[in-house]
């Protein structure tokens, strides 16, 4: 049985390891992040896990299985990430690492030694960081960290490669982080959305994770003095962007209602240049974040947005200077066998579940490229995440950890 | 006669005093700005001007008039400012200071000693600076620098008061900067707009300067995860702002065409918060810059924009969190006597002129509160200003300086 009080105490201990003026923040690669990892290493070792940092910078605690030496059945892996976005939440990521720790603690308390070797992992830099890439560690495990990604630069011009080495990875040996020995991966995570709470359901069985595309676009008009440039003579790049925003949103609302799975599109980053109160904007830049379970719908919408960009620019006497797909992660399906195990585990304890898609990206996306992988969601109060108000009740966390434990036990027997 | 070559050489000398990586930039209160002032002090002194920095931080060069001791007819003042916006132009401000210097040089070369004492001034910080206030020095001369303005803070938390003292002013004695002895002020400036060039006219006789209001507004919606917050559940503060921008612009176009004088409204500063690519914007802030010759039109439009803000917020499920008039400078009329002198001076040399309003703010606005004041505009190529491309031909500058000289001579005789 999961020790619910101990799990909650661990969550509070990690919440206390934060930038003091910005709770709850542990940015990947920062000193605060490494402080959190030190805590994790001590806690992993206290449960008998052998700790290492793999070449991609993931922290891995290993419990040797009874059959590891003989007819090795492969590794059962669980875990999530301990880094956060700025202001970023007591549960997002770390909840899954600590639920995994609670599951292993329960096995040890019950004197259960698993058949499979079990690994508990804290993936490096799941959240978008100052290096502009998310899921760094899980990409490494999937062999999806290439030259281009490693050359990205962060604060002070440090490359991602150097940053990985700095926190204990070994980019020269990156191939060694690539895994083909994982027989199953299960990640517990908060939903970060409103569905489970709204429907009063305890756990989500994730069917798949929406693909994510990012598009960067720029409009170019003509900068001018705000006092002397007559209204009739303007090519105001911010008006082209405003037109574009409204039209893109209307199309995204229609796409979401089209019955083709989860779909959302968001503009969260906007740059108005030169950005003076008395200067007519000559250039605007924006990033669109688009998520879809259906790749065809994703591509149709991106093409539509390009057309909207051209049209908005023309109506405002501006130019669509660039429209570039800067990143693209394909949607991932969760493994049917593990999904069934999660449902069965919950059912045996009379805990309610429902299938749902994840609109948020997760390390599971990359693990699913090299192993059967699945996710358990616990409810998020008001669907809030990536903010200090992010919340899941202690009992809900314990229910999730119990389901994770039972799923690992089912998988160990399979 | 104006020494046109010497005037142009002076303009080039000042253009060379710039932040090397951002031509042409001399931000007020910066080391570069003080370097420019050192050049000006040496040049003023070379023409026999006695230099001082007044309590408000203005550099003043003084040529004693023949009647200064006896029945003092008051001071004739000319000048402009030597600070720039970032990337900001070889002519904006400094052209008027150097044209004034060229006029005094011409008087001396002709052996002319004026009846009035003549003062040549480089006003402190005309452009909006990191302290958020424009026309700092001319406000000081008009007694319009109060506690509120002096308490504004800039880089490193330095107050405006401390910054003025640092560059040679004396805020403790600020009252001494207030002037009531000026019998006439004439400022030469580039038009910063397209009218003179478009109509092939040499000089503008400024009728008045539009009033400037700044409104700061904020929309509040609900921040959320871009992947999990369904399109149907969003309160995206950036959509409220986009709606507002388009509607405000349409109203401003109509107001400009209403035949009630110069009117423009601009949003040059936008802030999207929290500003993450994967976060639905929960808050947006913007600054509106509104200019009108007609104060009633200004007030009607501001009220209309407030209504648009409320309506846009409501349509997007957001709130208009604030809508605040953060600054207001009333329109200023130029003095009829000096306007007539400028027209007469140009007419006597068969130089074409036209009356026009200034959409840009100028130190003349504040001088007009304590003295008869007027402005001469020289053409701006393509109307461009506040950018490295800002340009006025050498011959056009010389024509302007000649008109300034002739206007000062007419005023000296009056
Ligand atoms: N789960 C999560 O918040 N991942 C961060 C990447 C994203 O989905 O934007
Ligand atoms: N002339 C000029 O550019 N003044 C700066 C203040 C403004 O008009 O925005």
UniProtKB/TrEMBL annotation, chains A, B:
The keyword Metal-binding applies. Pfam families: Peptidase_M20 (PF01546). Its cofactor is Zn(2+). Zn(2+) 2 binds at residues 92, 127, 386. Binds 2 Zn(2+) ions per subunit. One of its GO terms (molecular function) is metal ion binding. Transmembrane segments: none annotated. Zn(2+) 1 binds at residues 81, 92, 189. NCBIfam families: hydantase, PRK12893.1-5. Belongs to the peptidase M20 family. PANTHER family: ALLANTOATE AMIDOHYDROLASE (PTHR32494:SF5), ALLANTOATE DEIMINASE-RELATED (PTHR32494). This is Zn-dependent hydrolase. The lineage of its organism: Bacteria, Pseudomonadati, Pseudomonadota, Alphaproteobacteria, Rhodobacterales.
């Amino acid at each position: 049985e999961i020790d619910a009080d101990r799990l909650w105490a661990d969550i509070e201990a990690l919440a206390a390891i934060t930038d003091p003026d910005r709770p709850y923040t542990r940015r990947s690669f920062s000193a605060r992040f490494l402080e959190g990892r030190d805590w994790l290493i001590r806690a992993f070792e206290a449960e008998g896990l052998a700790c290492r940092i793999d070449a991609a910078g993931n922290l891995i605690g290993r419990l040797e299985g009874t059959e590891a030496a003989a007819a090795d059945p492969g590794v059962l892996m669980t875990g999530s990430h301990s880094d956060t976005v700025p202001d970023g939440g007591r549960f997002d990521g770390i909840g899954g690492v600590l639920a995994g720790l609670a599951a292993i603690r329960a096995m040890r308390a019950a004197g259960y030694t698993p058949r499979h070797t079990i690994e508990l992992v804290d993936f490096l830099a799941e959240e978008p960081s100052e290096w502009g890439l998310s899921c760094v560690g899980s990409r490494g495990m999937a062999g999806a960290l290439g030259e281009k990604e490693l050359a990205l630069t962060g604060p002070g011009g440090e490359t991602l490669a150097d940053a990985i080495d700095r926190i204990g990875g070994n980019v020269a040996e990156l191939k060694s982080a690539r895994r083909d020995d994982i027989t199953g991966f299960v990640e517990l995570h908060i939903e970060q959305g409103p569905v489970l709470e709204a429907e009063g359901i305890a756990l989500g069985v994730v069917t798949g994770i929406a693909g994510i595309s990012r598009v960067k676009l720029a409009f170019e008009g003509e900068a001018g003095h705000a006092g002397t440039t007559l209204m009739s003579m303007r090519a105001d790049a911010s008006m082209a962007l405003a037109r574009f925003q409204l039209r893109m949103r209307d199309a995204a609302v229609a796409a979401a209602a089209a019955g083709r799975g989860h779909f959302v599109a968001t503009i969260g980053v906007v740059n108005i240049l030169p950005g003076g109160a008395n200067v007519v904007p000559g250039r605007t830049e924006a990033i669109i974040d688009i998520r879809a379970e259906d790749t065809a719908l994703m591509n149709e919408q991106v093409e539509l947005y390009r057309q909207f960009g051209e049209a908005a620019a023309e109506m405002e006497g501006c130019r669509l200077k660039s429209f570039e797909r800067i990143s693209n992660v394909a949607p991932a399906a969760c493994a049917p066998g593990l999904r069934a195990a999660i449902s069965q585990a919950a059912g045996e304890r009379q805990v309610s579940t429902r299938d749902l898609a994840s609109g948020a990206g997760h390390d599971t996306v990359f693990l699913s490229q090299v192993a059967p992988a699945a996710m358990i969601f616990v409810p998020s109060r008001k669907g809030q995440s990536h903010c200090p108000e992010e919340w899941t009740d202690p009992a809900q966390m314990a229910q999730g950890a119990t389901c994770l434990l039972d799923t690992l036990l089912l998988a160990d027997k399979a």
